Amino acid sequence: MTQSFGQQITEYFKGANEELRKVIWPTKNETVRLTVAVIAVSLSAGVFFWVLDAIFNYALSTVLK
Q: Over its length of 65 residues, how does the chain's per-residue pLDDT go in tens digits?
């Protein structure tokens, strides 16, 4: 026996709602702390690759002169 399309949609959203109730959402403190960590790591990586690019650019321009 197959379910109608409407019943399938209803079951899908019931299941999704049950799963959302199981989620443990982060606190405001955790969200702020992790956001700061992501920004710090992104900035660090950006500076690292900028310095690496400058070194390679200098080395390549020295070799090609």
A: 578 988 999 999 999 999 999 999 999 999 999 999 999 999 999 999 999 999 999 999 999 98
C-beta separation of 40 from 48 below 8 A? no
Global pTM exceeds 0.85 = no
Q: Which domain holds residue 41?
A: 5-64
Total count of domains within the chain: 1
